[in-house]
Amino acid sequence: MTAPPASTDGIVLDGLHKRFDAVRAVDGVDLQIAPGSTVALLGPNGAGKSTTIDMVLGLSRPDRGTVSVFGRSATEAVAAGAIGAMLQTGSLPAYLTVRELLTMLASLYPHPLPVDEVLESAQVADIAGRPTQKLSGGQSQRVRFAVAVISNPQLLVLDEPTVAMDVESRRAFWAAMRAYAASGRTIVFATHYLEEADDFADRIVLMAQGRIVADGPTTEIKAKVGGRVIRATLPGADLSSLGKLPGVTDVESHGDAVVLSCGDSDAAIKALLREQPDVRDIEISSAGLEAAFLELTRDPAAGRLPDSTTDSLEVSS
Amino acid sequence: MSNVTYVRYELLRTLRNRRFFIFSLAFPLVMFFLVGGSNSGTVMPLAGISFTEYYMVSMAGWGAMMSVLAGGARISTERQAGWIRQLRVTPLTTSGYFRSKVVTSYVMALLSMVLLYSAGIALGVRLPLGNWAQMSGLILVGLVPFAALGVVMGHLLSPDSMGPALGGIASLFAFLGGSWFPLDGWLKSFGEWLPSYWLVQAGRTTILGGSWSPQGWLVVAAWAAVMTVLAGWAYRRDGKRVT
């Protein structure tokens, strides 16, 4: 894999490795993130997202490799107040109101945002006077978001921010985030929901087994992970010629039935009907994000991903 | 320094904590009025000072001890809640974190002492200004081992086990140190090797016109050194697990 020229401006992860006993939690991650972009780290549980994030935040030291955040080490960037973080676990300290908590934390930073502004943008102004121990789940998540942005950070890191939220809170949360992203900060968030990554990020970095298995603009990853499937009955089908049909990314057969995974199912179905007039019992369905996702992120040791991780994403013919 | 704001809110949080109020402020005060008040004027056996004086100084020391123990113990809650991880992503340094905890604990200890002194004055204790200053100074020095012990407990124990552990350890130190009544015989000989004994003696010896003996300084210094080393160890042990 040839790396683009390293930039000291953004975030550069270079050959990160982290092992916990026998588990290689992060197993060679190289990543460059340009300033001002919003990047989703997408992957199932145990993919290494949180471990990667911990190293970006300086909470954990890599066994090998380096982290550079705006040209500084992670700990230097944290000490300078350049990073805001919403960690996966963590409840708020009790016996302070939301406003007091934010004022307290703002005092730690060189250039914090005004508390009132943060209360407003995190949509917690209405509960500013409420003690932190009396907040609902969704409310305390929004307060934790406010905590992450009070420092006016250049880089905002969110580790599965919506994992404990109901649908309503999730919507409110992303609305607040969108407003924040519009201000041109660099945002990195981990999630295992493709929809969130798709709705919100410019770029998706797909992780599995401690490695990056796909990396690209959201539309591109979505086409790969979020395609459709054509199922049909076609006795005696020639799989390799079906695989070459436009829009088809993968072919399988189960007896007389064939299953075509498609990036572009419109093109595929037109070509299929033209070239295989005998085809019948046609069904076109959404591939099921989870299924496609599992396909992309399954164990690299299973042999689908020889050298370059992009191979598995191309047409396998 | 902006850390003043940070410490101010730490204090506010502690003051709003009802458990702190009961253990560190209310409990010693009630004990003082019950025992010290009922025997005012009588000279306490084995102590050479009046019941009221003895109970004022020993309860002030006990409340102060509870304050600094509880201060360190709160690390436990913040650790379990993941709040320490969150703080590690701020410019607050580790030493800054401990400094804020120790400063908060000491302010609370002073509050506890001032409350007991006021109660003592209300019941007729009259001492020269120099005496008040000297015994307060000695108590503050004698609290160092307990502040460090609080940090050790904060790192080793879960918030659930903290209540009983704190109550048990503080009561044991108070009893063996002679906070509730002066000890005699082998219990006294044993108690003299505990820092809590010297918290009581901070007041008693001052009122009798003296100060800590060399043994007192030695005991407090040794406990402070050992507890500080243990606190450092507990912190590092925790750091490995948390990150």
Can you give a write-up of this model?
- The complex is a heterodimer of chains A (317) and B (243).
- In chain A, 31% of the residues lie in helices and 27% in strands.
- Chain A is of the alpha/beta class and 317 residues long.
- Chain A is elongated, with a radius of gyration of 23 Å.
- With 243 residues, chain B is mainly alpha-helical.
- In chain B, 79% of the residues lie in helices and 0% in strands.
- Chain B has helices spanning 3-15, 18-38, 51-80, 83-87, 94-122, 129-142, 144-156, 159-177, 185-191, 195-207, 214-242.
- Chain B is globular, with a radius of gyration of 18 Å.
- Chain B starts with a helix and ends with a helix.
- Chain A binds chain B through residues 54, 57-61, 78-81, 83-85, 87, 89-96, 100-101, 103-105, 107-110, 147, 151, and chain B through 2-6, 9-10, 12-14, 16-17, 77-78, 81-83, 85-86, 88-93, 243.
Please outline what is shown here:
The complex is a heterodimer of chains A (317) and B (243). Chain A is α/β, with parallel strands linked by helices and 317 residues long. Helices cover 31% and strands 27% of the residues of chain A.
* Multimerization status: heterodimer
How would a textbook summarize the main sheet of chain B?
none
Shape assignment of chain B: globular
Helix count of chain B, per DSSP?
11
Count of DSSP-assigned helices of chain A: 11
**How much helix, percentage-wise, in residues of chain B?**
over 70%
Q: Shape of chain A, please?
A: elongated
Residue share in β-strands of chain A: 25-35%
Spatial extent as radius of gyration of chain A: 23 Å
The separation of the N and C termini of chain B measures 29 Å
Classify the beta-strand content of chain B into a percent band: under 5%
Number of E-state strands of chain A: 13
Unreliable parts of chain A: 1-7, 301-317
Largest sheet of chain A: 6 strands, mixed
In round numbers, the mean pLDDT of chain A is 83
By secondary-structure content and strand pairing, the structural class of chain A works out as alpha/beta
